[in-house]
Each structure stands twice: as structure tokens, then as C-alpha cells.
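Predict the 3D structure for this chain.
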Amino acid sequence: MNDSTQSKTSKPKSRGKLIMLGSIVIVGLISAYAWIEGGRVISTENAYIRFAKLMVSTDVSGVVSSIEVKEGQSVKAGDVLFRLDPKPYQSALEAAQAQLEQIKLNLESAKQDYERLQFDIAAQKAVLSQAQAAFERAQTLLRNDNGTKASYDQAFFSLTAEEQKLQSLQKQGQIALTKLGGDLARPIEQHPQFMQIKAQVDEARRQLDHSSVHAPFAGIVTGVDSLQKGTYLVSQTAALTNTGAVGLISNERAWIEANLKETDLTHAKIGNKVKISVDAFPGHDWEGTLQSIAPATGSEFSILPAQNASGNWVKVVQRVPVHIAFDLKASDPPLRSGMSVSVEIDTGHQRQWLDLWPQWLTVSNSFAK
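Done. Predicted structure below.
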């Protein structure tokens, strides 16, 4: 084989090596670019839609007299859901109001009694002054041998009786003033007895108001059929059973509860933009914002947390709950609480080319071995 033939054979081989080398470089650059850009977005399918929900009941006991809503009905905040028989609460309110009026009369009467006692005390002071003068005259006459011992004793005993009567009236006046709170000018509405009965009236009125159960927020009612007319509702357990409450799911206050790997939270921060995809409505996306990151992993809130003190412990990547806020629009498909979603959180973080050096060293060492 001559030199020309060998050079023709070597040229395709060199060209093939160059193509292979170029392909490796291109793949490496693409991989490096993908690695750099890949650290910006974190995603998870472990996410669900949450709506504000509540078992609406009341804190008073009674018999259910009417149910004002139907299953699946939309209600506004303040709409009546169901009512209890109001008669017991109305009677209790009327009794408390009557007692309050009686307290008013009693306090007014006590004021008048106190004023009457002041007149009696003033009159008794005048009688006492007269008895004092009579005693002094009898004492002078007896000293000058112009009066009798009997007249002196009579004047003395009369003076003593009038003094005791004055003291009794003054004591009654002090008691009457004490019953009025020690201040005659204090308004009746500030008297302790009045305030006590007024509190009973307010409580009776509150219980009457709570015999009608209202929606605390706008939403859709559910579990209505489990509450029947004539059921005796026990306030202590009403919200714990389906037979004593009506479920209410908000149709406005929605959020996403996602559980992210702890290793994905390195660059996540409050305010990051989020792309939301609902499994039930493929092709329709929502936009949200990372609103909060839980201060503990999900296992920390479990009733029976994992015990890692055993010798066969295996390290498991933990999940951290995050709260994602998003807005509902009238044109959006109808969402339901508990639906599965996928979220992509844009952290805004971008890896640097220099960060490839430790990765390159690791790969190089592995090939060297």
C-alpha cells in the first residue's frame, strides 16, 4: 500500500474521531446547560387543593325546628342554615328582663328609703336637742333643790332613748347607702346587682340569637341530610357528629398544600411564583405564590413520630409542608377541596459554571478508579 492510499484511509478515521469528540463536547455542553438551568424550578405531585371548611353548629342545646338549606346549595355569609326551637330561649330572656326591671324598682326604692331616712335623722336630731334641753333644765332644778329626783330621772331616760333612736336611724342610713354601692349619685346601671342581672339578660339574648345558625362565610353546604328536623342537638358534641351540624365548604378561600422534599428547599423562599396544574383539568394552568413554609417537617406533626434510635435506622428524605396561595376566577373550572395537583415553584436561582468543577472532579475520580 502506497503513501497516498494510507493518507486516504487515515483521513476518514481522523474525521470520525473529530465528529465523535465534537459530539461528546456538544452533549457535555447541553448537559451542563441543562444542569445549570435545572436548579431553578422545583416541582412535586404531592400537592392538594384545600378550601376553608367547617362543620357549622351552635353552642346552645335544643331541638332542631327547621332546616333552611339543601344539599349543595350556595349560601352567602350570614344566611340562616338551620334553627332551633326558640321558645325556651325566649322565655329565659323574658324572665331575665323581668328580673332586671325588678332590680331597677328595688334600687329606686332603696334610694327613696335612704332619702326618707335622712329626713327621719334630721327630725330625730331636733327631738334629741329638745330632750337635751329638758334634761339640762331638770338637772339645774334638782341642783337648786327646785325639782324632784323623779323629774330628773325621767328627763335622763328620755334623753338616752332619743340618742339611741338617732344612732339606730343613722345605722339604717349607712346600711341603705351600702346597698346602693356607697354612692347615692351612682347611676343605677352601674350598680353591681343591676350589672349582674344585665349580664344574665345579655346571655339569654345571645342564646336566643344562637338558636338560629348562620353561615360564617360564603360557600356550599354539605351533609345537610344528616341533620333532621326534631333532632335534639347537644352543644358539647354537636360539631363532632354529622347529626348536629351542617358542613360548609368555602368557594372563595382556596390554597394549595404541597409537601416538598427537604433537599428541594435550599433556594425556595416566600414570594416565589408557582405554576399549578390540576389533574382533573389537564391543559388549564393556574398561577400562585409561595406564601409560607412550615417550620417543621410533616412527621413532626404526626401522632406517632418515627423513632430513629434503633440500630437498623434508614435515612429517609423528609417532606416539608408549604402553603401556596392562588386566586380563583369566574372563568376557571370548578375546583373541589382535596383534588390532586402538580406544582412547579420558580426559585429564581441559577447554578454557576464554577459549580460544575466539584461535579467534574467527582466524575473524573470515578473514571480514574
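Residues 123 and 229 are 69 Å apart (CA to CA).
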